[in-house]
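Our consortium's second objective concerns turning raw sequence data into structural hypotheses that experimental partners can test. To show how far this objective has progressed, the report includes one record in full. It was chosen at random from the queue rather than selected for favorable results. The single chain below, 434 residues long, was entered without modification.
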Amino acid sequence: LRTRDQRSGKLETQYQRQEEDSTGNPPVSSERIVLNVSGLIFETYAITLHKFPNTLLGDPVKRAQFFDPRHGHYFFDRHRGSFESILFYYQGNGFIQRPLTVPLAVFLEEVKFFQLGEKVVRSLLRDEGLKSMDDILLPDGSSRQNLWLFVEYPLSSRYARWFSIFSITIILISVASFCLETLPLFITYHVEITKTVPKFTADNFFFREEFFYVELTCMLWFTIEIFIRFYSCPNRYSFFRSALNILDIASVLPFYALIIMMCFEIPITRPTIYLRFFHFLRLFRVIRVLKLSRHSKGLQVLAKTMVASSRELTLLLFFLIVCVVLFATAVYYAELDSHPNSFASIPDSFWWAVVTVTTVGYGDMHPQTTLGKFVGCLCAVAGVLTIALPVPVIVSNFNYFYVKERENEELINYALLNRRRTQGLADDQIFTEF
């Protein structure tokens, strides 16, 4: 411990040595430098900082502009939680890692301020499992760039956010119309009267005209949105490789196929094969609900989790198949003598085994003998244990991708913010958190 006078004398001596170093003399190995970061004091050797002379702290000339001669230390009005890792970059010979409590965008801003270099940024992002900001591909031309950011990144501007909200509203209206049009209140059935007995045919019914116009309006909006994304995308080839774009195209194709069938007056009656195709197209329209995944990071994270957990899901499916075959066979022979009609065959028993293993239990098939009930208990317990085993792995994958998605979002926001700052736009035009 040192007294205040001793510390002041040490700082004055250090300041004198700093002035000597700024003239070009080599640093003294025993010289210590005091760094004040927003009130938090750090102290290290000058030779430690000089390991990286191209950085802000490693260059005496760059560092000198932050020296406070009144207090005898260097003052930085920067983020205190990030500076520990920044300083350890010098102490650890180039090793850097973001603190868990510091947001990615904040830490990147500190790395940029202290001029650690683009190589450090790329290494940091690679360790985080993220791409560099330079990997954010933008199309050529300012108009296409602005249009691409407008439709693809809702946080890029206030109007882009409104566009995203309006697109979500159209999707919800389309899904609601798709569901409501099947209510009996809105359906007109075709009735055939034979010998004074009315016959209702469910295969030939017609929907109200209002729903058609709602459908037409929504499909026109989706089509315009697809063309805007295709026109402004940086790479036309990668546009058709994107799962979200393929999903958008698949959601509008059934409507235009129905329009073609209507224009050519293709008969949609029971004897024709077009009837099943017609029903398939109407069923395929439900895929439009997946369009929400473009605007929902949670759905995207869920899809990535399912892909990453494919091995665990395959093992789960294999275990379930083994349990279904095993317990279906056991319950069949357990009920064979007393109630042969309850479980007619082993394949018929598969249904009971599936709903029991998955703990659904519809109750349409159930064992009645004591041995059969015992088999049912074992089946239910085995199902609970089997399903519970891979759940921690799947949850862990979900948490991993969720954190990475949030960090990716912060990185994109950081890049967009720097872009808008470079262009000199007003602060109120810079994106806000959605």
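The partners drew two points from this record. The first helix runs from residue 4 to 22. The beta strands are 32-37, 40-45, 67-68, 73-76, 187-194, 197-207. Both points have been shared with the crystallography group to help prioritize constructs.
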